[in-house]
Amino acid sequence: MSLLRSLLHGLRSLVRKEQVSRELDEELNGFLEMAAEEEMKQGMSRKDALRAVRLERGSLEVSKEVVRSGGWEFFVETCWHDLLFGLRMLRRSPGFTTVAILTLALGIGANAAIFSMVNALVLRPLPVHAPNEVASLASQPHGLGWSNGFSYPDFEDIRDQATSVFRDMTGMQPSHMDGFSMNGQSQPIWMSYVTTNFFQVMDLQPALGTFFGPSDGGIDGSEPVLVLSYSFWKNHMGGDPNIVGRSASINGRPVTIIGVAPEGFRGIYSILDTQGYLPVGMATATLDSPKDFLTNRSLENIEILGRLKPGMNVGQAQPVLAVVGRQLSEQYPEIHKWDWLQAFPGGPLNANPQDTAVIESMAAFFLLLVGLVLVLACMNVANLLLVRAAARQPEMAVRAAFGAGRGRLARQLLTESLLLAALGCVGGIVVGVAASRSVNSINFASAIPLVFDVTFDWRVLAYAVGAALLTGVLVGMTPAVRAARRDLNPLLHESSRTSTGGRQRARSVLVVAELSGSLMLLIIAGLFVRSLRSVERSDLGFDPDHVLNLTISPTDAGYEEAQASQFLKQVLQRARALPAVESASLAATIPMGHYNYGEELKIEGYETPPGQQRPLAGYNAVSREYFRTMRIPLIRGRDFFDSDDRTSQYVAVVNEEMARRYWPNQDPIGRHFTTGKDSTHPIQVIGVVKNSRTQHLTGSFRPHFYRPLTQSYLTPVTLQLRTALPAATAVHQAVDLIHSLAPAMPVFDVQTMTQALDTLNGLLLYQVGAALTASLGTLGLLLGLVGVYGVVSYAAAQRTHEIGIRMALGAARSSVLKMILRKGLIVTAAGVLVGALLAGAIGRLARDLLAGVSPMDPLTYVCASGLLAAVSLLACYIPARRAMRVDPMVALRYE
Q1: Residues 377-394 pLDDT 10s
Q2: What is the CA radius of gyration of the chain?
Q3: Are 202 and 134 in contact (CB under 8 A)?
Q4: Geometric angle at alpha carbon 196, from 158 and 252, rounded to 5°
Q5: How many whole angstroms separate alpha carbon 360 and alpha carbon 144?
Q6: What is the pTM of this model?
Q7: What's the CA gap between 338 and 141, in Å, rounded?
Q8: Percent of the chain at pLDDT exceeding 70
Q9: Helices and strands in the chain: count of H runs, count of E runs
């Protein structure tokens, strides 16, 4: 039916066109008859009158064309003819067409791939209804950066006092890994603890069952209920339609599954698949949170999201939040010293505004780099089009002689460039999709359900199409303008050897710009690669080699603390007896791991200086021999003993930075401090160990202390084995050991310590940055190579006749080689000089993204410049060698 409709539509259009043409013929013939009758009144015969009118009025067919050109149909028809002619011309030059399309496809594809990553991280809105109405809140204490952590009482006060701009607010604790048990099977699950109105504020509907009601979970941990994510339900529960109402347990506490979140909703973080949701009141039961965390205003572990009223925006909400923040600061001056309380648009990150700003800066930086790649691709294709336009000048002259105007010629060339860009866009989308799929397939080797959903949505497609249109205009503008400005008629009377100085200079300028951009990309790539090498070789403060990590969670198997302590003790005893195991220990968290524990401290004899932050320190709960296993040197004092339990004095080992900052010029051994969670048990410092990296691989060391696991029980814990052989060889023995003691015990994150460093907090971002910049640098180098080769090769071809004369007169081949290479040397030197200067400017933008290397690192600049110069000279040598082998007799006949 659709084919029949198309045929009928075509027939109607044809009939309509013939009817309009017939009416136009009748109208023009009538006008001709009227003019002839006027002449006949003066005595002329009809034949002579018609002839005189035709001579005076011009060709009837030309008049028809003039009339037809006033209609939109004529414009569409000529564009269609231009398109068809452009396709024929491209088909006649398969080599040129292939190179141009591939060049544009690489440039557009690289841009689409990088933009798809930026879109996933920064631009894509929350998967909720009316995401523009969702805002996240952050405060800025005096002299400190932004923080998105609030206490639960703060959440209640802000929600109650900002009703004039917010329809409602919801609070949530940062996501946490818990143990999920059902039908005797245990597995880790990444949970969010949310207020009971969370799904209502997000305006979501359940895929199955229902969401939390006002009384579910309460603030006292009653009514333990659970909502699963759609992906967890499908992947781990088999999509069981009868899941609602089933019983399960979280960290050994029974819960009832009441619903499944809608498909596509992974939570409010773009790279984390939140797998389950519990009422925030259950945190006291399943997370061992302080019993008063819902009433303690100093425990700032709640993130706040609000839904604005229709028609409101974050700017309009700001005055109200400023008043609320000032009132809370005045009401609780010892706790809140806020300069600002501010709303930010909710997005895929929903992180601390400072962290969001860093990620947005990184995204803008990589978009700048990949945009430079597209510019290089445009310059390359523009160079090819200039060469092609020079070869087509006789054709343009003939078309001009037959009446084609300059605008018509320019439009034809621009149409061809847009056609190239469209074909390049198709190829670029294919390249971008392939690159995005490779990114999506990255295995993060982590128990955390990280997702990097780099998909091609309408934003990425719009970006790719926009880049293609801009590319088509940019690459076609120069030859089109030249065709419109140049008087082509004299070319009909000239030989093919015309002056090419102006065109050659234009192409040389383009190649210098290409080389400059290529060198910039190479230098940035070199800086990122050297930054990765610097981080990999930095002093971590511990030795990651020959260490195996196995994470276990006794609570997932329903163990109470006493039973879990006995189980862990048996695991350690058996692990230390394994062949090739030099030492074994337990730790609540590992360096660059998923868990980062921190405490606010009250230190005996230490007064916080005015205007400075209260004493804070990270901490870890470890077993005896932990420092031996990780090879962290003990500087003074002692290690933990088995007798350090809850019946003895609470003790801790601190790092050098904590000792220096809180006990300057003093011996910290024997000093005491307390933590915010437990102010009733003073902790005595028994040792000092070397500073080591715990959360980040760069930056200054932070205060950190270690407590015995027997005095500060945390779960899950990681069993760490230092082996004499490669750590991976002990995997099966260690897993079998654990399952021999507890067959149902889940074991996850089984990896060597060196593999564990390849995380978001560790080397992963540096590895991604080095890989991306190296790829862009290689692509830029390739484009620069093609550009230099094209210019030198074309210049050599244009001088073939001259070379023949020189060689016929006795010129040596070496002199011909020098003559051709001189052009490439000048272009290369100019490109290296300009590129080095521009790289110094753009390198400063990357200062905060580098580690252990200066943006002006001389070794990087010298190596990148040398590589580009060597490759460029190689590209120059090939056409120069071909030119010096030209037969003089052939060259003399060259036309």
Answers
A1: 888 888 777 777 766 666
A2: 37
A3: yes
A4: 125
A5: 20
A6: 0.78
A7: 4
A8: 79
A9: 25, 21
